[in-house]
């Protein structure tokens, strides 16, 4: 598929270059093209949830300029708190697409910023392939680099985060990651300040793009430490690491969101510790030749112990004194796997933070998952300074990928590099002509692919065939491995097309006779909100939909996918899981105008709010244990159900009522009973749902999104002129519902008075 | 019996009683009584040492053993153990007390403390006597390793042996790629037996779930593929330097390559077929369907 083939020795260099360019260009093109499934099937649209925020932020930046973007205070999110967007966002993504937009504008290509956002990730996948080529070339050989570049262009583990429309940080961050690694390896090999400075610059871009930069700033020190322990210290390491660390730390502090974290959090302390250690080791090497052995031992063995002990003491003192923040909860959850579930339910509730099954490993990596250990094995067997790096990278990344599905993304580049090495190593032997073998063993110049496909070469002397693989078998092996590679291509295309190309804003189903049905309920509902509600209307929904409401409907939301304030989310969760009157009080306090729920019972959409409801209860319980109890929402036998056995509290909570209001009046199928929920697969527990405090405002075609309007407070009891003669007593007590209204209103009147005073 | 009447069932009281009914004596077969009792004891002790004075006077803990006073069991109409009851301060002599549901909430100390907090508003901070086993084991192991290193200080070659490091790294890779971390967090059963057909299955039929046996199988398959692939390469390498070939292990390089290839092809096809059986609708297969 991708083996480089040279035809003659004279033109070999030119041909190799040409082939390299051609293959990389093809990899770019294939990577780009295979990510366009979603565009072809649906339209050029931003996907999922987070991309909507990124798009909105980019749009804001393009409209108002970069400095206004950095100072942007978004009053339309987290009502009534607001959010300082400029200071809580990694701006790399927005700046990148803004820059492209600006350049295209300068060239008189007027493209809407949305198109740039949609196509940014596929474009960057090509750059990632090139960066991977360079990294692997430094680690092994150009041939392996080409393999690795082709792998990463199509591997599903990376495609999953970079299809067209998935406008998210990871799309550009993997490129920055690979490029930083390449520059680091390059600077380590050359010991040059220039490469190290470039590496720091690339790291700066990575910091501006993704929170995963912490992985780099811990992996590179780990590499340095491993080299020191293995006795591979060299002045090249000293120069590149010290240059990199100083510049990288200063540069990363320029990102507003990162700020002083590089000097004040524990995640960054190992890098600093290695920096110090490296100075000591350098001094040791310098002194070794100049003093006697005895002096040397006392000086450094004693000195090292003292300094090491002191460093630990100082570190803990700083942590205790509050100058350095201890490790964050997200960090703990990587090591202590039970941590998040107990302490941070909001992290545990996200599906991409779940541990990884072997199926998803295989699904995302296919043949490369099985082959990359081979590359790892040969890297260990033929270890050198820079191969230590890829070994550490692969082993640590495979651990992280096992803990969290999401971190599969960091493993994928390592897998591609190593399986590229494995395949290239094999093909180098099996495509080579046998006669060449005895002569060229010495010339292990890894710079040239030494493969020839001239069929006319003479056969090897068959007397030696005892310790050489016969030609036929060689061909056979090559062909079979080629079949595996083809299977990988087919698998990658299948996975990209079927699993990773759904915008999740637009749903697609197949009707009975195989036609494609497109359900556009989300956009229908958001459009309704945009057109029919007041501009400053506040919409309450579960946090998953916050970014979409802000991005598509342009309305104020209470909570969104930037889950920075747990108690605010818990308040929304409490409102959703309380009964109507209690929820009404909370919603009045939060100035809610509309409530939006996602309901999949009519079409059988499983990601709806009823299925997420337990997390709302759990998060609410974390903050309000007095009012919300998880066990109250279970049936007698301890199951989660909205069917006939569901508990009374469950059947009266706001979420149930809003989801199933008037649901029993419709029939989902010809022979289904009324109130049959397709997602859950049974008849709901309570069919006559009545609403007192809210009213239905809009329900989309397939009932996927339901919007409710909060009713105003009931008026004071009106006294008609005819009734004026009626004695006053008893009237206020009689109307139960109004009584509450009066009380509330009195309170609010009191509040106003207090304000006036 | 007297104390039972005086402290628990008499009115008026200004305190709540949390009573565990259990059967600790060895001639009653109750395997979970002992751990439940231990947890109960942890809560009671934490309450005793950490709660404020007023709290301490509001809640008392008591234990009823079947051995000592079966009549109380009869009186309460109990025939199972262990059971945790909460007798509120206002609870009359004949009323049924609040029972803690061990089935749903479990019986560890935190759950008991939560139950008490729910019932009485007294929050008990559970202080577990620290478990020294894990640190001790780690220290012992570390000591053992260091001791071994010290004993073998003259021949530390194995530390520089690339094969052993290679095996270590590959081992880690296979462990995590076969989803052992998932097993560790979710704790799935080893095998699954279908209650209807009595068929034992090693492989769970869904992509979201996996059985322990199946992950071991997958780890072995990955290992075999890697082994086969290395074999292919070693076969070709063997022709380069004849010194490496020992007398014992000198099969034909061609045979070696074919063997490696066969392993890779067959095992990978097998892996693919397992994957297919889990991922419904996956269209591609190789050798096996």
From TrEMBL, chain A:
Which cofactors go with this protein?
Answer: Mn(2+); Mg(2+)
Q: Which pathway is this protein assigned to? A: Protein modification; protein glycosylation
Question: What Gene Ontology terms for biological process does this UniProt record contain?
Answer: post-translational protein modification; protein N-linked glycosylation via asparagine
According to UniProt, the reaction catalysed is: a di-trans,poly-cis-dolichyl diphosphooligosaccharide + L-asparaginyl-[protein] = N(4)-(oligosaccharide-(1->4)-N-acetyl-beta-D-glucosaminyl-(1->4)-N-acetyl-beta-D-glucosaminyl)-L-asparaginyl-[protein] + a di-trans,poly-cis-dolichyl diphosphate + H(+)
Starting at the broadest rank, the lineage of the source organism is: Eukaryota, Metazoa, Ecdysozoa, Nematoda, Chromadorea
Main subcellular location of this protein, as a coarse class: endoplasmic reticulum
Which residue ranges traverse the bilayer?
Answer: 12-33, 84-104, 116-134, 140-160, 210-230, 237-257, 269-287, 299-323, 358-380, 387-405, 411-427, 475-494
Q: How does it sit in the membrane?
A: Multi-pass membrane protein
Q: What's the protein here called?
A: dolichyl-diphosphooligosaccharide--protein glycotransferase
Composition bias (Basic and acidic residues) maps to: 447-456
Residue stretches making up the STT3/PglB/AglB core domain: 537-595
Q: Note whether Heme occurs among the keywords.
A: no
InterPro entries xref list: Oligo_trans_STT3, STT3-PglB_core, STT3_N
Entry-linked Pfam families: STT3, STT3-PglB_core
Q: Which Enzyme Commission numbers does its entry carry?
A: 2.4.99.18
Gene Ontology cellular component?
Answer: oligosaccharyltransferase complex
Please provide, alphabetically and separated by semicolons, the GO molecular function terms listed in this UniProt record. Answer: dolichyl-diphosphooligosaccharide-protein glycotransferase activity; metal ion binding
Automatic annotation (TrEMBL), chain B:
Where does this polypeptide localize? Endoplasmic reticulum membrane
What's a GO cellular component annotated to this UniProt protein? oligosaccharyltransferase complex
Specify the domain of life of the species encoding this protein: Eukaryota
Q: Does the keyword Transmembrane helix apply?
A: yes
- Which biological process, per GO, is one annotated for this protein? protein N-linked glycosylation via asparagine
**First-listed, main subcellular location of the protein, grouped into a coarse class:** endoplasmic reticulum
Mind telling me which residue stretches traverse the membrane in this protein? 132-151, 163-182, 215-232, 253-275
Q: Which InterPro entries match?
A: OligosaccharylTrfase_OST3/OST6, Thioredoxin-like_sf
| Keywords, ordered alphabetically | Endoplasmic reticulum, Membrane, Signal, Transmembrane, Transmembrane helix
Give membrane topology per the record. Multi-pass membrane protein
Metal-binding as a keyword? no
What is the similarity comment for this entry? Belongs to the OST3/OST6 family.
According to its UniProt entry, the function of this protein is described as:
Subunit of the oligosaccharyl transferase (OST) complex that catalyzes the initial transfer of a defined glycan (Glc(3)Man(9)GlcNAc(2) in eukaryotes) from the lipid carrier dolichol-pyrophosphate to an asparagine residue within an Asn-X-Ser/Thr consensus motif in nascent polypeptide chains, the first step in protein N-glycosylation. N-glycosylation occurs cotranslationally and the complex associates with the Sec61 complex at the channel-forming translocon complex that mediates protein translocation across the endoplasmic reticulum (ER). All subunits are required for a maximal enzyme activity.
Q: What is this protein called?
A: Magnesium transporter protein 1
Which species is this UniProt entry from?
Answer: Caenorhabditis auriculariae
């Amino acid at each position: 598929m991708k083996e480089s083939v040279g035809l003659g020795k004279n033109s070999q260099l030119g041909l190799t270059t040409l082939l390299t360019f051609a293959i990389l260009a093809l990899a770019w093109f294939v990577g780009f093209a295979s990510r366009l499934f979603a565009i072809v099937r649906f339209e050029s649209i931003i996907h999922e949830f987070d991309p909507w925020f990124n798009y909105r932020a980019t749009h804001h930046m393009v409209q108002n300029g970069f400095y206004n973007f950095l100072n942007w205070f978004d009053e339309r999110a987290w009502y009534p708190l607001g959010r300082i967007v400029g200071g809580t966002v990694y701006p790399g993504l927005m700046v990148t697409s803004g820059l492209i937009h600006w350049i295209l504008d300068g060239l008189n290509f007027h493209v809407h910023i949305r198109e740039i956002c949609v196509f940014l990730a596929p474009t960057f996948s090509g750059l990632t392939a090139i960066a991977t080529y360079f990294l692997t070339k430094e680690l092994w050989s150009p041939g392996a680099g080409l393999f690795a570049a082709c792998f990463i262009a199509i591997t599903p583990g990376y495609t999953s985060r970079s299809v067209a429309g998935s406008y998210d940080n990871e799309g550009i961050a993997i490129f920055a990651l690979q490029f930083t690694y390449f520059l680091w390896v390059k600077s380590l090999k050359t010991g040059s300040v220039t490469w190290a400075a470039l590496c720091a610059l690339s790291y700066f871009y990575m910091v501006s793009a993704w929170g995963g930069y912490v992985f780099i700033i811990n992996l590179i020190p780990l590499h340095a430490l491993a080299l020191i322990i293995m006795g591979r210290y060299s002045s090249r390491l000293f120069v590149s690491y010290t240059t990199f660390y100083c510049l990288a730390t200063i540069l990363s502090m320029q990102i507003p969101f990162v700020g002083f974290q590089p000097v004040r959090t524990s995640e960054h302390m190992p890098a600093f510790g290695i920096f110090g250690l490296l100075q000591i080791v350098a001094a040791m090497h310098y002194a070794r030749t100049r003093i006697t052995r005895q002096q040397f031992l006392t000086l450094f063995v004693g000195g090292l112990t003292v300094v090491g002990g002191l460093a630990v003491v100082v570190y803990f003192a700083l942590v205790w004194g509050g100058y350095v923040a201890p490790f964050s909860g997200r960090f703990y959850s990587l090591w202590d796997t039970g941590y998040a579930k107990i302490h941070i339910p909001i992290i545990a509730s996200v599906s991409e933070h779940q541990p990884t099954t072997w199926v998803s490993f295989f699904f995302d990596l296919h043949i490369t998952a099985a082959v990359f250990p081979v590359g790892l094995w040969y890297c260990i067997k033929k270890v050198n300074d820079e191969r230590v790096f890829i070994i550490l990278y692969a082993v640590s990344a495979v651990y992280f990928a096992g803990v969290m599905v999401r971190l599969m993304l960091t493993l994928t580049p390592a897998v591609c590099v190593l399986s590229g090495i494995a395949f290239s190593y094999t093909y180098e032997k099996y495509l080579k002509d046998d006669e060449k073998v005895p002569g060229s063993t010495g010339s292990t110049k890894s710079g040239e692919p030494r493969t020839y496909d001239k069929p006319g070469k003479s056969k090897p002397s068959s007397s030696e065939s005892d310790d050489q693989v016969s030609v036929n078998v060689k061909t056979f092996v090559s062909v079979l491995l080629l079949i595996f590679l083809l299977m990988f291509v087919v698998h990658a295309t299948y996975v990209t097309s079927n699993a990773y190309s759904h915008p999740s804003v637009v749903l697609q189903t197949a009707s009975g006779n195989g036609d494609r049905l497109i359900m556009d309920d989300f956009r229908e509902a958001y459009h309704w909100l945009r057109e029919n509600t007041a501009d400053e209307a506040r919409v309450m929904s579960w946090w998953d939909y916050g970014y979409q409401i802000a991005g598509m409907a342009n309305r104020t939301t209470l909570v969104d996918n930037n889950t920075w304030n747990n108690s605010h989310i818990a308040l929304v969760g409490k409102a959703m899981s309380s009964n109507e009157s209690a929820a009404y009080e909370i919603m009045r306090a939060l100035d809610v105008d509309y409530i939006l729920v996602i309901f999949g019972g009519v079409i059988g959409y499983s990601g709806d709010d009823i299925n997420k409801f337990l997390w709302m209860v759990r998060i609410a319980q974390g903050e309000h244990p007095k009012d919300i109890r998880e066990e109250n929402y279970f049936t007698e036998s301890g199951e989660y159900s909205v069917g006939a056995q569901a508990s009374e509290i469950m059947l009266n909570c706001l979420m149930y009522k809003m989801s199933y209001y008037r649901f029993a009046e419709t029939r989902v199928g010809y022979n289904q009973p009324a109130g049959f929920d397709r997602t859950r697969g049974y008849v709901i527990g309570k069919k006559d749902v009545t609403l007192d405090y809210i009213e239905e405002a809009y329900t989309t075609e397939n009932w996927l999104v339901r919007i409710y309007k909060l009713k105003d407070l009931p008026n004071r009891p009106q006294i008609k002129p005819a009734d004026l003669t009626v004695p006053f007593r008893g009237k206020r007590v009689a109307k139960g519902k109004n009584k509450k209204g009066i009380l509330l209103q009195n309170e609010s009147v009191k509040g106003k008075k207090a304000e006036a005073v | 019996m007297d104390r039972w009447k005086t402290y628990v069932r008499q009115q008026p009281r200004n305190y709540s009683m949390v009573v565990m009914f259990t059967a600790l004596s060895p001639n009653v077969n109750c395997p979970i009584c002992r751990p439940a009792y231990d947890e109960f004891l942890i809560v009671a002790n934490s309450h005793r040492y950490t709660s404020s004075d007023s709290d301490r006077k509001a809640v008392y803990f008591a234990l009823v053993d079947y051995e000592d006073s079966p009549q109380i069991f009869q009186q309460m109409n109990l025939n199972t153990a262990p059971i945790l009851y909460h007798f509120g301060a206002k609870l009359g002599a004949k009323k049924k007390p609040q029972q803690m549901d061990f089935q749903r909430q479990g019986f560890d100390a935190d759950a008991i403390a939560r139950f008490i907090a729910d019932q009485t508003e007294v929050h008990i901070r559970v202080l577990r006597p620290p478990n020294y086993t894990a640190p001790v084991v780690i220290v012992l192991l570390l000591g053992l390793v260091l001791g071994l290193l010290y004993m073998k200080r003259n021949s530390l070659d194995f530390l520089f042996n690339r094969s052993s490091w290679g095996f270590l790294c590959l081992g880690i890779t296979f462990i995590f790629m076969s989803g052992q971390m998932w097993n560790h967090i979710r704790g799935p059963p080893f095998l699954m037996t279908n209650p209807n057909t009595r068929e034992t299955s090693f492989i769970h039929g869904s992509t979201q779930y996996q059985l322990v046996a199946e992950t071991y199988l997958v780890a072995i398959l990955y290992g075999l593929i890697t082994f086969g692939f290395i074999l292919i390469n070693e076969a070709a390498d063997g022709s380069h330097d004849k010194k490496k070939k020992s007398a014992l292990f000198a099969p034909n390089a061609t045979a070696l390559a074919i063997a490696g290839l066969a392993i890779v092809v067959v095992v990978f096809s097998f892996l693919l077929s397992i994957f297919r059986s889990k991922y419904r609708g996956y269209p591609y297969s190789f050798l096996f369907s």
